[in-house]
Amino acid sequence: MRTLVLNAGYEPLSVVTSRRAAVLVMRGKASILAEDGSPIASPSLLMPRPAVILLHQYVRVARRRPSAPSRRGILRRDRRVCGYCGKAAATVDHVVPKSRGGDSSWENLVACCGPCNVRKGDKTLEELGWKLRITPKAPAQHVWLPQELDAPHEAWRPFLGSAQAAA
């Protein structure tokens, strides 16, 4: 079981194992906001299994510019949907091919399915008569939310609110 960790300001900070969350609670660094599953049992303690914890002290998160694009980042930004046909995507494509001067930037990379990637090859969208279904751009968030928030656990939903809309 994984546990959602909320910063002292109630914004999602990370996702950790329930064991790590229990240690934070036992050390007095966090409080349990939601429980899930069977309790954690030790010879001297019976404790509810935390699903969501709240840190007592605010953790300052470094706000950085988006990092260089990666295959994983592009697929996550586009929600693994092909930018050309809308089917499930497993690869990344350069909108303006590298052979035609295109760069490997957030604005020139889109998630793409295999068949579209093969058909497109090193052609431009104008040559094929294709249109992009999305406008590729750098992620709006400077810090990625944990990947588990893409499909959050049911117990986490009441605590996500605006963070889930931003993802």
Automatic annotation (TrEMBL):
CDD domains: HNHc
Species of provenance: Nesterenkonia flava
Entry keyword annotation includes Metal-binding: no
Single GO term (MF): endonuclease activity
Ranges for domain HNH nuclease: 69-118
Keyword annotations: Endonuclease, Hydrolase, Nuclease
Protein name: HNH endonuclease
InterPro entries named in the record: HNH_5, HNH_nuc, NA-targeting_endonuclease
